[in-house]
Amino acid sequence: MTVSDLFEPLTLLHGRSMPNRIMLAPLVTQQSDFDGSASEFDLDWYRQLSEGGYGLIQTGATTVEAGGIAYGRQLGIHDDRHLVGLRQIATSIRQGGGLSAVQLHHAGHRADPDFGGVPAPASGATLPEVAALTTEQVERIRDSFIEAALRAERAGFDGVCLHGAFGWVLSEFLSPLLNDRTDQYGGSVENRARLTTEVLEGIRRACGADFQIGWRLSIERYGLRLEELREITAEILDREMIDYLDLALWNSAQLVTEGAFRGQTMLSVFTTLPRKGVRVGAAGKIKTAERAAQILDEGCDFVLIGRAAILQRDCPRQVHANQSYTSPPIPVPAQFLRDGGLSERFINHLRGWPYFVS
């Protein structure tokens, strides 16, 4: 593939096509109002992105329940009062020509009480003196995801993407380390995947025929098993339960170091699965136009850009104009980010990563 191939349209199972193959990775910014409503800084951030030439723009992790919060000033979609700001974000993205999606998030056992979070572990062994969710509570969280998707549709978004990565609640239930349940949500691989599949099925039933569904999956840490995740993903792709799979890799070029797939790229474990009409993309240290094109050669349909988008909101337009494009190296001075239009709230969030802000 060439860099030019990144700018070919990409059809999806439902709704409009992506105008190109570059998707914005979901990025937490910690700049919303304390009640989860979109702030003026959120609106400006998505306005900047909407002019950047992305095929699809996802919001950062957006709470489906007040108690599922993981960060201060996290964007919310768990209450109708959030619709005003969300509508403005969706309208801005649509006017810019890209597709839009809300990333639906619940922190599970990682919910932070400092911000009103209520830790919700799958297992009673995960956190000291915190009981496992009851079956009824699991079903409530499932229904909260579905209700949040309906709000996203009412707000004018083209779809939603489930945050099934990094040990958050959907990922947590997939893990045999963090899920020792004996009800229908624990035990076998099928049971541990049940919360994810019931959310996907519920959204498809509740929302319109053109509504798009994505799923973000990570493979490492939190006791996740690569072979099991491949089995679960194969079933979801075969049933065409999603429009696109977003593989959240720390490094898109990394190799499997143990098990049945040792020596293969982590990416190839999933791109070699039959996918029918589902599209597959990956994130992970994609810093150059050349590397983005290589991701397509390695079996992906699209790429996800995160850090490069923070550094330059119009990264896709930069790539289109310069096929030798390379993202600015990090760390960068805070003033570089200010000059680029980032809010002080977002810059303070980025200071949590010592490699980003010098």
Automatic annotation (TrEMBL):
<protein>
    <submittedName>
        <fullName>NADH-dependent flavin oxidoreductase</fullName>
    </submittedName>
</protein>
<feature type="domain" description="NADH:flavin oxidoreductase/NADH oxidase N-terminal">
    <location>
        <begin position="5"/>
        <end position="321"/>
    </location>
</feature>
<dbReference type="InterPro" id="IPR001155">
    <property type="entry name" value="OxRdtase_FMN_N"/>
</dbReference>
<keyword id="KW-0285">Flavoprotein</keyword>
<dbReference type="Pfam" id="PF00724">
    <property type="entry name" value="Oxidored_FMN"/>
</dbReference>
<keyword id="KW-0560">Oxidoreductase</keyword>
<dbReference type="InterPro" id="IPR013785">
    <property type="entry name" value="Aldolase_TIM"/>
</dbReference>
<dbReference type="InterPro" id="IPR051799">
    <property type="entry name" value="NADH_flavin_oxidoreductase"/>
</dbReference>
